[in-house]
Amino acid sequence: MSNAILETVQNLSESPLADVLGAGLQSPLIDGTPVRYVNLDYAASTPALAQVNDYVQSVLPYYASVHRGAGYASQISTSLYENARRIVRAFVGGREDDAVIFTRNTTDSLNLLAGCLPEDGEVLYLDLEHHANLLPWLDRPHRGLVAADTVEATLAAVEEELASGGISLLAVTGASNVTGEVLPIARFASAAHAHGARIVVDAAQLAPHRRLDLVRDGIDYVAFSGHKLYAPFGAGVLVGRPDWLDEGTPHLAGGGAVKTVKVDSVSWATGPARHEGGSPNVLGAAALAHATEVLAALDAKDWLEHESLLRTSLVEGLAALPGVTVHRIFTDSTDAIGVVNFSVHGYDAGLVAAYLSAEHGVGLRDGKFCAHPLLKRLGLPSGSLRASLGLGSRQDDVDRLLTGLTSLLRNGLGTDYVVDAGRWVPAVETRSFPEWAPPTPGTAGAAPCVTD
To answer: What is the C-alpha to C-alpha distance for residues 336 and 393, in angstroms, rounded to an integer?
Structure first.
């Protein structure tokens, strides 16, 4: 590798790929030392892109009612909101007639779709799904399939179920929120269509890491969330074929979702309005749409390389630590986003997370990740740890986590911890909080932060 190429590769891993808010946030340790906060919890909620924040601030003065307002600001807000649909549809490579419905989050989107399914078909899903792509189907005719140890065997099992007939929708994640493994969505879509079914993809984890293309991959519906896509302003989206949506149960019964209303009857609208009753989240939709524009403008090669370098460094570093196990679903998976799941032998996952936060300023996630069936099958009924990377991540973040774990394995805990309100916390909490921030459970004794 030439020196120029080597330098480029190093820069891709040592520097953030985009500016995010909170990148310089200082986190106090339990001994009072301030350190740069390391955010390794992107899979739960991403920080806001600086560009998204700037965009929201620029449009905020024009915020007003939409669709029925004659005023200048109202017309601008309406244009902003409706144009967001076009932007999001383009980001996912949607068909020209695909509906784009703004919701609260991925869970909301999938619940909306559940109310629009044909009466005569079953939903098929895998046991590795996030609860958002499992629970909405339980009130419908459904089949839950336990995934095999390999992607190929799992795909074969799905095809066998589809071939047995009676399935109208295959619901599958684009990438596991537990291990980051990416599923071959195009192949699942092809199998569904071959047997007369449609496919919906939970892309809450995939969309922030990979470009989607509904037409190329044969996806009928896709759902994802702004808060996982660097636009944490409370919006999600469902994009897909309009026929089921136009016939389905209106998701929110209220103003704007109707054609006409009488005292004891209603004629519902079609299109996105049918499911967007009430005043919509205009700024949330605008922020989500602008975040997709920022992501679409990234160099695809750099984006993938940045994440791949960091993930590889993290996985290899964890695997080298005695007593640390990296978990995966499939033995033959070859692609994964920047999400890594692991456990530390002899330590409760919640205790490790509390230790890393209090003694090293590293934030990551512990628990069952809203994927209880999968965690149980992986032999982790009490939970595990998840470190997740994103556009603002850099090699130093990975190094800080590995350093913290190395210290734990060599020296043990540096302070005492107790369980309070179901969470591990330092027995004596000394870290301060901003004056405006109320203490969280287990931190009632924390001193307020004094600001200049």
So the answer is: 16
Average pLDDT over residues 407-413: 98
- Would you please indicate which residues are annotated as catalytic (active-site) residues? 370
Two structure tokens written together for 389: 């990377």
- CB neighbours of residue 368 within 10 Å: 18
Amino acid identity of residue 81, one-letter, is Y
End-to-end CA distance of the chain: 49
User: From CA 232, how far away is CA 229, in angstroms rounded?
Assistant: 8
Domains annotated on the chain, with CATH: 3-47+299-426 (3.90.1150.10), 51-296 (3.40.640.10)
Q: So what's the pLDDT on residue 90?
A: 98
Give this prediction's pTM: 0.94
For residue 138, is pLDDT > 90?
yes
pLDDT digits (tens, 9 = 90+) for 101-131: 999 999 999 999 999 999 989 999 999 999 9
